[in-house]
## 1
Amino acid sequence: MSEDVVSDTVAGTWTKPFEPPKEIPTHADVAIIGGGIVGVSTAWFLAKQGLDVVLCEKGHIAGEQSGRNWGWVRQQMRDARELPMMIVSIKIWKTLSEEIGEDVGFTQGGCVYAARNDKELEEYEAWLPTAKAYGLDTRSLSSEEVAQHIRGASFKWKGAIYTPSDGRAEPHLAAPAIARAAEQEGAKILTSCAVRGIETEAGRASAVVTEHGTIKTAKILCAGGAWTSMFCRSIDIKVPQLKVKCTVSRTEPGHDIMDGELWEDETGIRRRQDGGYTISNEGFLEHSITPTTFRHSMAFLPALKSEFGSLSLSIGRDFFHELSSPKKWNLDRPSPFEETRVLNPDPNPRAVAKMRRNLDEIFPAMRDRELVESWAGMIETTPDVIPIIEETKQIPGFYIATGFSGHGFGIGPGAGLAIAGMITGKETGIDLSEFRLGRFYDGTKIELYKKV
Ligand SMILES: Cc1cc2nc3c(=O)[nH]c(=O)nc-3n(C[C@H](O)[C@H](O)[C@H](O)COP(=O)(O)OP(=O)(O)OC[C@H]3O[C@@H](n4cnc5c(N)ncnc54)[C@H](O)[C@@H]3O)c2cc1C
């Protein structure tokens, strides 16, 4: 590794010292739980509308999923129900750096899903009518065209689908920059500030209780990522959510094999702003079975069946840890959210070794490029792999935005706009009805990867 390559570009987001707030406000128009891309984007849009917003993050901004993801900002192969919000999100990404005056690393280098065989190609091309219905620039690529986009591969792909307007942003830059933009607009962003629970008055949300004190507010958004289900369970709201560990690596800069993003077989690669590549391997998605798995198993059956080939299941420490963890707690004592300020799973060395082998096999020129950093993140997902966004029926004034299911980074800014609109009643043109929590309990058929 050359000396000027920084080895913690990504991990620096969550390994820095914690900075608890010096003081906390007593009131806010809206309190947001969670400083991932969804929470900070919502805070930014709300603050721009002149609302008094406070965001509480138990650890660091982007310390969990939003700082650890692959950085794909993709419309391609999305569930049709998410596309309207995703298309708006791309529009926001395009001007975001300029608008907030900070670089978020966004560029539109395109997204290629390359097929090794006819079956894969057929599967990808089955999505083309959906792209057309939403006016996207997705098209098929011939084998020769793929070779023009993806240079120096050791074999020829059968063909591909390609969306030139798809892009990437840098996860370690984006959410922290949006959080600072929200602060510039007057939002208060509090880190090392876990929300232990909420208070209600006459059945409505009336305050968040943080480890540093209580903030009165009539509107609370829970954008707690992997913690949302646990948080909501403590206030008797059932949110089906499972966690899957995914290991990621990045190479040092050098060699120009492609711009944008490539999905092929089980490997994902995307060009980084620093000239290296972020690599991942879908063959190593790991789910540690816990009592929650059993609680939500029926709802998740279709998703588990669809991902079965790439999902590795295990049972061990996590099972007993969850079993012995409290389901409810006193709000005047430390809560599970303070116990784990940052959910920081270890990267799986076998996954890293597999990525190395895949990269060397596909791109022989990359053999001299070291994997300079590896990390892991816990993806949280819903039974139909699309988010839950709504004001809860159980507690008016308590909103949920969670379950972005492995593709919430790209859609985050669009979701922030839509959620801010939901909270203030301002029309955004984005229909959120498909994302109701009730769909899991009212007999609605659970559909995966919906096309037009
Ligand atoms: C390895 C990996 C790869 C991925 N790749 C992509 C990709 O390429 N493209 C894409 O679009 N998406 C991708 N995703 C998914 C994407 O990262 C997530 O969907 C998105 O970041 C979710 O954002 P969020 O704000 O909802 O949650 P998070 O980023 O998880 O943020 C939630 C925050 O809430 C905080 N919190 C929770 N409970 C409390 C509490 N009680 N008090 C205070 N704070 C609390 C947590 O500490 C956390 O920081 C990937 C995810 C992972 C893990």
## 2
Amino acid sequence: MDFELSEAHKMLAESVYDFMLREIGPIAEQIDREDRLPDWVWKKLGDLGWMGVTVPEEYGGSGMDYLAQCVCLEQMSRICPALSLSCHAHSNLCCDNLYRNGDEEQRQQYLPPLCRGEKLGALALTEPDAGSDAVGIQMRAKRHGKYYLLSGIKTFITNGTVAGAMIVYAKTEPEKGAKGITAFIVEPGYQGTFAARHLDKMGERGSPTGELIFDEYRVPEENILGGLNQGVSVMMSGLDMERVAGTGWTLGMAERALELSLKYAKERVQFGQPIGQFQLIQEKLVDMYVGIESARLLMYKAATMAERAHRGGKGSEINKLAAAALLLAGQVSTQAVLHAVQIHGGYSYMMDYPVNRLLRDVKLGEIGAGTSEIRKIIIARELLRE
Ligand SMILES: Cc1cc2nc3c(=O)[nH]c(=O)nc-3n(C[C@H](O)[C@H](O)[C@H](O)COP(=O)(O)OP(=O)(O)OC[C@H]3O[C@@H](n4cnc5c(N)ncnc54)[C@H](O)[C@@H]3O)c2cc1C
């Protein structure tokens, strides 16, 4: 057992953080205010090899492991959680899924431009009436010659308004319920109607979130991902990895909250001494530190186990471990940011203080990739099954 990151992971963490600090740090507030990431960022991240961290090199990726993906998202999130979220949707939800379930032609066609950052990826599962109950989706895909006509609405889709390639789940045989769902690779520009509406969010601003309307949108049959009516297994193949990678994104926000709080606790003087000298403030700092360290260790373990499961090892433990890692990280991060807000007192309420942005950003860590409640349900189910 080794609690240290490898040299390669450490180097990755340092270079991602260094880039984020230099290039994104100065515009992070602007990104939040304008709810827009700069257009140049995707190509730049592609050049740096961070748009397809886990995709094998033969398809244009960096060929690293899931721990590397966690580390990358964690470091991005310390400076700009919105960029980290969009990268998560791109690399994990879209690229990893495409690699895992795609045939050779699909991999060759889609992965290289996605890894270069020429196209942004997304995954569209959630619908207005189907969130946690993912297999309750209503979107239809009707066969029409060599095409499928997609009709329905997807909502809350990260990168959905700007994506060049998207994995979309639809019912091909609704009467079969969960067994009648198929995943499709969808691009803009096909025949039929596709409209994307930008949704205005309280946090994670800059990461584009969209409502997508499809009406008889014509998708070629060769764009079926992972087989007809195999949508649930495509979905399940990625859920653990999604949760593990999401842990890095969530945890980066807690780390930033602790960094800001330590600085402020040393600088802010009340009653003639820095507030960091008061034990009630110290307790909050300690609470943040203990939570972050615990969640990070669980992330390391879950990422390592996810890698093993991905390579064909024992798969069952990863379900509850991945859910546990994200559950803990989500709770710890929300609490850490609440502590940071309290430590910053009234200043935290001012828009130009970064803890304000963190407070709006962090809550998503308990909602996306399965809510905290759903994570608990998964863990309980696995525990009772054993
Ligand atoms: C910013 C943002 C980005 C997102 N990005 C994507 C994306 O890229 N792609 C995508 O497909 N989706 C995306 N989502 C959707 C996200 O995955 C869903 O919001 C999430 O799964 C919860 O679904 P819901 O919002 O419909 O909540 P609901 O499922 O309606 O849940 C409402 C409440 O009920 C609780 N609940 C539900 N079922 C149970 C149960 N069985 N037992 C106990 N409690 C329960 C939930 O925990 C929650 O507290 C995104 C969401 C947001 C906000």
